[in-house]
Amino acid sequence: MRLLQRDNLNDLIDQFINYIRIERGVSKNTIEAYSRDLKGFADFIAKNKFNLEKIDVAVLTEYINYLSAKLSRRSLARNISAIRTFFKFLVLEGIIQENPARLLEVPKVSKTLPGILNEHEIELLLNQPSLNSAIGIRDKAMLELLYASGLRVSELVNLKLSNLNMSIGYIKVMGKGSKERFVPIGEKAITALKRYMSIARSKFDKGKGSPYLFLNSRGKPFSRQGFWKLLKSYARKAGIKKRITPHIIRHSFATHLLQNGADLRSVQMMLGHSDISTTQIYTHVDRTYLKEVYNKYHPRA
Length: 301
Description:
Blueprint: H1 9-22, H2 28-47, H3 57-68, H4 73-92, H5 119-126, H6 134-149, H7 153-157, E1 164-165, E2 170-174, E3 180-184, H8 187-205, H9 224-237, H10 246-259, H11 264-271, H12 276-279, H13 281-297
Antiparallel strand pairs: 1-2, 2-3
């Protein structure tokens, strides 16, 4: 297991920023803010010559006290959130074993509802890949599966052939913290996957026998960044003006299930949330949607 060292702290911050950009789908403004916040944290660590292997809650508290004399309450809360999320990422990646930031308290702020695409926009997006080429057939399968399952982008690009069972319509997913779950997929995704497997995949694998389900033009598994670029290109082609990330497709998957009558516990299991309170944010999205429908169609709204 790697230990935090002075010479790789900035590299780890870069990896984290890339993670929240692709995996978490956070906004550009948040990415820029977290980058500044963590650069300030790295400068503080270097200036005070703290041993990075032994950063504990006392060191972090000293830094927060240092910031509290300089920043507004909102900016301080954002810095604490950046630090907590950064150290959680280090634990998830196996870089450190214990999270010294877990005890830091963040001042409560109102939750921002996740952005989603409506069902019409999803339909437009999924219809963009051309089925006249191996690339289009592959991309169609990836997009259909992403929306059919609500996978995280890292889960999608790391799927292996052995994870797929099209005869019963399930995929086996290895999620965060190496937690395994089984997620059902629908007929449209299965049809797209069968087309990809029978017509297109061999043109990317080129006889190499890769265990990964989705392969790029070099016969390698997709990177998170590579798939994100692909998704954005199809969103532009579909004329979708909203901000688009793989995580927004995940948000849309969960919201559309709830809008159409799914129960919260089932959605939690499909998303792989360990705590149902994480899934409950989608009930707020659902209520927002219902309010919009009411205001639009009720004659006395």
